[in-house]
Amino acid sequence: MFVKVRSMMLLAAIAAVSGTLYAQAPITPAKVAIINAQKAVADTKEIQKAQATLQAKYNPRQQQIQSLQNELNSIQQQLGGQNLTPDREAQLRQTGTEKQKQLQRLTEDLQSDVNNERQDILGRAGRQMADVVKKIAEQRGLDVVIDITNTIYYRPALDITAEATVEYDKAYPAK
């Protein structure tokens, strides 16, 4: 009988402790938001202005590349024609080879320059957008903000992409 009383007291103590633990640690749902970070950054006035600036800056080099491409097309047409002397054909082939190398160098240099500048701009804007999203999260009391790229489904009401873009434009106006 002593063992039964002791077992019942032990069970009562376990139940009391368990009830206390559950009462002390209620589980609250996390407040979540979704963002399309890439779109949020791309839609900012700063990025749109930077794209226009890049286009204007590199347009002369793109035109030079197009001009070289046109010259190469002309050489190909001449080589395809009839009545070419062997000397003229050799000269056209040599000129075509030189222009092809020049075109390749110019294209690679342009691509490298554009990519480097674009990465600098997007990297800075991405860091600034992260600060803006953090501020929005703190203001709204959000526990987590998830990028849409890894999300299968979400309610559209959770999307803060447009709000982040507006807040970014306020915090970092395009110059």
CATH fold name, please?
Protein Binding, DinI Protein, Chain A
Could you give the distance between the termini? 86 Å
Q: Give the SSE string.
A: HEHHHEH
In quaternary terms, these chains amount to single chain
**Uncertain ranges:** none
Mean pLDDT: 88
Main sheet overview: 2 strands, parallel
Shape: elongated
- For this structure, what is the CATH class? Alpha Beta
Task: Assess the beta-strand content as a share of residues.
Answer: under 5%
Structural class: mainly alpha
Number of domains: 1
Supply the CATH architecture.
2-Layer Sandwich
Highlighted features:
Protein Binding, DinI Protein, Chain A; 175 residues; mainly alpha
Question: Can you walk me through this structure?
Answer:
This protein has 175 residues and is mainly alpha-helical. It has a single domain (2-171), classed as 2-Layer Sandwich (Protein Binding, DinI Protein, Chain A), CATH 3.30.910.20. It contains 5 helices and 2 strands. It has a two-stranded parallel ribbon. Helix 3 (45-80) packs antiparallel against helix 4.
